[in-house]
Amino acid sequence: MCLYAFQQKWCKDMETVAFDNLNFDANGLIPAIVQDADTNQVLMLAYMNAESLRLTLETKDTHFWSRSRQELWHKGATSGNIQKVIDVRVDCDADTLLIRVHPAGPACHTGEQSCFYRNMKAENK
What we know:
mainly beta; 4-stranded mixed beta sheet; 2 helices
C-alpha cells in the first residue's frame, strides 16, 4: 500500500492485497519486517495484530503488538525514534509484511541503527 502521492505512478502497477486477505497466525499476528526506505537496510522484525496495522496505516507511524507485554506499542513513543511509513508491502503468501520507513533514529533498543547488528558465530565441532 502506497501512502504518499509521489508514489502513485509506481504503485499503480503493483498488485494490491485487501486487509481481509492477510493471513494472520493463530494468535492474530503477522510478522512485519521494517526496512529503511532510503538505504534498504533491514531495521527490525516485529509483530502486528489487526489493530496495530490499522493504526500504522492511519497515522503513518509504525505500531506493533508486543508479545512479551501483551499490549500495543507505538515505535518511538518514548525514545523519539519514530518510523514514518512510506509504504507497506505484502509477501506472496500474504502472511508477512514489509514496512518501508524513514526512521527518526536507531531502531534497536540497544541504540544500534538496526536490530541486526550481530553475526552468528559458527560452531566448532
